[in-house]
Design brief:
- The protein has 14 helices and nine strands.
- It is globular, with a radius of gyration of 20 Å.
- It is about 55% helix and about 15% strand.
- The chain starts with a strand and ends in a 5-residue tail after the last helix.
- The chain has a six-stranded parallel sheet with strand order 3-2-1-4-5-6, sandwiched between helices. A three-stranded mixed sheet has the order 7-8-9.
- It has two domains: about 160 residues, Rossmann fold, CATH 3.40.50.720; about 120 residues, N-(1-d-carboxylethyl)-l-norvaline Dehydrogenase, domain 2.
- Helix 1 links the parallel strand 1 and strand 2.
- By secondary structure, it is an alpha/beta fold.
Length: about 290
Amino acid sequence: MKVGFIGLGAMGAHMARNLHRVGLLASVWNRSSDKAQALAAELGCELAASPAALAERCEVIVLCVAADQDVLDVVQQLLPGIRAGQLVIDCSTVSSATAHSAAALLAAYGADFLDCPVSGGTEGARDARLAIMCGGSEAAFERAQPVLAAMGATIARFGDTGAGQATKATNQILCAGYIRAIGEAMAFAQSQGLPLAQVVETLGKGAGSSWYFVNRAPNMVRGSYPAGFRVRLHEKDLRICRDMAAASGAELPVVEAVLRDYAQLVAEGHGDEDISAVFRLTERLFD
């Protein structure tokens, strides 16, 4: 099986490396050509001249790009090289509606599509420990197993096209709640004069712990927020959650509150920091 990878950002580059590690990666492409050139040189794989050229070479194509329009643009660029029987796996986080649109474009050429958004941060991408949430046919899901297993540790199909993205939207709501609660808790601990590193070490083993607390509260202790999951990207994801909920006539209070926080962080120039930068705002509660 020859696999091509498109989208070599903070997550995608690690995922492509893991496909190379098991001998599946054949070709890469990225909108910023310097990233693709560097990774192709590092791994010794082909640097595709275009998405269509990559599609001509590969049986399976993995996408990991930033936004809905990016997915649709890349799929359109793939089409001249697409042939019946190919499989496109989209690991981007986009709306269920975009997944349906991409699947329809590819189906017209006889190709299959899986929406397979991922969770686990850059650490999970690096260590091939991602949780992968899949939507699409059972047959396509089974065919994709070697590819998915090279990138993730927890892999599940939730239903037909769009179900993976709906599951990821659920995950992003959870992340929003965790990061806001952690920001408030750490700001409270700081206001009480507690040793923050010790708070993280001890409470990280208690009932109130979470992946985000253990892995991102240390950013708050250090006052440094290197990009693991950028504010701008989670903001984009939460807008998707808001729109999907609005389609059912619902409003999500946690989502709305965190979107307000992110709007402020972006306005203050922190949009490319990790979402743990919400501590910049919560610690002001005690000024």
